[in-house]
Amino acid sequence: MRDTSPPALVQVDGLKMYFPIHSGVLRRHTGDVKAVDDVSFSINAGETLGLVGESGCGKSTVGRALLRLYEPTAGRVIIDGEDIAQLSSEALRKKRPTMQMVFQDPQASLNPRMSLSSIIGEPLVEHTPMTAAERQGRIYELMDQVGLNRRFANRFPHEFSGGQRQRIGIARALALNPKFIVCDEPIAALDVSIQAQVVNLLEDLQEKFGLTYLFISHDLSMVRHIADRVAVMYLGRIVELSPRDDLYARPLHPYAEALLSAVNEPDPDRAKTRKRILLKGDLPSPANPPKGCNFCTRCPKVFARCLTEKPDLVHVEYGRQVACHLFDPINTASGSTGGSEDQEHLQHGVTQ
Amino acid sequence: MADGAAPVLDVRGLTTVFHTRQGEIHAVNSVSFSLKRGEVLGVVGESGSGKSVTMMSLVGLLPAPPAEVRAGEVLLGTSDLLKMNAQGLSDVRGAKVGFVFQDPMTSLNPVFTVENQICEPLIRHLGMTKQQARARAVELLDLVGIPDAAKRVKSYPHQFSGGMRQRVMIAIALACEPDILIADEPTTALDVTIQAQILELMKDLRQKLGMAIIWITHDLGVIAGIADRVMVMYGGQVVEHAPVGEIFHNPQHPYTRALLRTIPKITGQREKRLSVIEGQPPIMTDAPRACAFRARCAHRFDRCEAENPLRRTLDSLPLGIGHDVACHWSPEGADA
User: Fold this and answer.
1) What pTM did the predictor assign?
2) Which of A3, A36, A97, B308 has its Cβ near the most Cβ atoms within 10 Å?
3) Whole-complex ipTM
């Protein structure tokens, strides 16, 4: 469907983000935290890519490296035809208006000493030659768009509730008419009844302005609602990238399967009958990932090859990419295709 | 759960206010509920709905000014906790009532080993010797599924991961085999796969030990999986109370109904657009004289402005056992 469409707005190739570890008296470089390790994906214009995973899997780091809030260790990030990772600082500054970010914690990402209109107006001062009057007009326009009352223009962030603060953050991100917005857990800090308000707002704005989103979240139900395609990350790598409906109906990667089975459904009858795949243990440290597949220490379907060799993210079905040896044609000959009903039962035998 | 059995905990008309510079905040308004042995009561509500304050009021965990427990009875067995002195309450906490909080990092003491912290209630409440307590600490860690318990017991909290720390918290809460375990958002700070581990552990422990659990959360998915009965709170009041199946399949209060509709589904038909509850939760600066939800309610009418609805039972069962709701409106007729 989407694969055939013209060049993607965002194209990420082999993105790596390592944070060096220095230790000893001489602070020698003794290792790296491989927060993001060889991640590639693309996002088409007007599309929402969901990026899910548990804390520490590197999903927020991907979002930040994408906008070059971190200096990526390696890889190309092409946004709207230019490689962000290579741009000089001046060229990057000129590029900033096309790409914006909405942060998780609206409390921490808004300057408490700036009024609402100076927060929303700051990008306009930085990047446009607008006069004060033009700016004020644009600020009001933005406030209308995100559903903030114009009377609040001179108030300060602490006077607003969490949901309203997130609206301020969204208005700021919209100020320069961006094409691409990274939403880093934009609803995680909000109450359930407020989350829906913010998500609806994001969807309305996308429709109105043709925005492209990278929606980073750990809330799998919300991602199902908002995303067109979903990438699942584990320990710095993408393990599966599939169209939304395919992923939720039939996850291919064992981690994606376990993650989806762990979601609590608000239905007591289903809660009683459903089968959970309980993963053993915790996430390994990204400073010292397993030698083979990153998931091999917890995977219920692990076999010899997983312990020695990292699987690549490859196309296994139309539009679906998976990084798992189970889907390698060499192994499918021996019958371990995965994903079938039988396989599921076998798996429960192993895990419970 | 035999309906005739005497409750282990019976709370009646609990009212808590906070004195602030801006005046009084009525955080808990005449909350009543009861809990039977081996039962899990889910308490649902948004931040500021009074769910945590209610539970902290029960056992005197709120700092006395600014908080004031103004009225009510909290019967644990036959004794009223609100009439107890500080010494009596500290005998109850840990021994009869265990607590598990949301953030295990801030509720564990970082400078003591886990062993030290599990032994403390054992020595304090059960009069065990150090040696007995140490042996028991290892058993408890084993019970909550910490591998290699004998070795791990000597570790400090920072040496555990988030999920493991929460297991340690549960071990401490269970140390004296309390009658009641109050779990305040115990899985909120955890990842979904770890959350699933903890939920299974709690279900398992409840079967083994038969304690009653009060599970506070804003996550309706968690409630569906673990609770027997559910109490929905809004503006410091209980707005609906029912067995778990009734809450999800036959919700009566407009707030409960709206709340259930705002959550996106993980299976089945994907919703085109999320339904929302417009507006913000109220700040209770006054004792409720009108319905607290009226400003956001789709079904409000004149009476909601004039009179705070009392809980009324929908079946013949007494309040706090069957299905009851605090609302003037009723979905019958409206739905038809």
Assistant:
1) 0.85
2) A36
3) 0.80
